[in-house]
Amino acid sequence: EKAVNLKKDLAEMQEWMTQAEEEYLEKDFEYKSPEELENAVEEMKRAKEDVLQKEVRVKILKDNIKMLAAKVPSGGQELATELNVVLENYQLLCNRIRGKCHTLEEVWSCWIELLQYLDLETAWLNTLEERVQMAESLSDKLDVVSDALESLESVLRHPADNRTQIRELGQTLIDGGILDDIISEKLEAFNARYEELSHLAVSRQIALEQQLQTMRETDHMLQVLQENLTELDRQLTSYLTDRVDAFQMPQEAQ
């Protein structure tokens, strides 16, 4: 009777593993929204816990069959063979579910990481747009234009590492058919805005550089002129002090 019960337990265990495999490993999943992906991750976590909880039952079966085989070798041999099959199937099921759970968690982590990088780069684009707008209407003061140029250049020196991460993470998910429509839309919008603002910023940078160069040249010319006028004023003052006749002065002084 005990052998019959153990045989029944083994059959039930094998049936449960077959159902678990069909439910968790053989279904075709399509993750077209973050909600679907998140739900799949949670479901696979529950599946992993469910399968691992059966480990106690498997151990009890193993111990009982070993005890029976020790008492009744002839009756326990067949059960021992069936037990080995169940143990192999159970271990394989555990490994496959662990693997799929890990993969889904990695995919979810990849999606969250992509969103974080997009948030960082969107904040940077907002700052770049703000600096470009601030540099459009400036006073004619040299220091104001210089500060605006320096401020714009400091934002443009932003490293490309985050954009590289966005491209690689997005492509990884799209290649796996994960949230491909949503990610493609997000990347397209981000890249279009990046290209537009980068072009505007570089154009404005060039314009500011040219404006600054012109202002510096003008400032230098005015400085030279001021120095010449100061020297001429000194000479004229000297002539007046010495009561020099105008016709005795050089032509330019006259």
Give your account of this protein's structure.
The protein is an all-alpha fold and 254 residues long. It has one domain (1-211): Up-down Bundle (Methane Monooxygenase Hydroxylase, Chain G, domain 1), CATH 1.20.58. It is 85% helix and 0% strand. Helix 2 runs antiparallel to helix 3 and helix 3 crosses helix 5 (161-175). The relative contact order is 0.08. Keywords: Coiled coil. This is UTRO protein. Residues 3-64, 208-242 form a coiled coil.
Helical fraction: over 70%
What is the approximate shape? rod-shaped
Task: Please give the alpha-carbon distance between the first and last residues.
Answer: 137 Å
CATH fold descriptor: Methane Monooxygenase Hydroxylase, Chain G, domain 1
Strand content: under 5%
Outline of the structure:
The protein has 254 residues and is mainly α.
Spell out the blueprint of helices and strands.
Blueprint: H1 2-24, H2 34-71, H3 73-134, H4 142-156, H5 161-175, H6 180-241
Helix pairs in contact: 1-2, 1-3, 2-3, 3-4, 3-5, 3-6, 4-6, 5-6
List keywords for this structure.
254 residues; mainly alpha; Methane Monooxygenase Hydroxylase, Chain G, domain 1; 6 helices
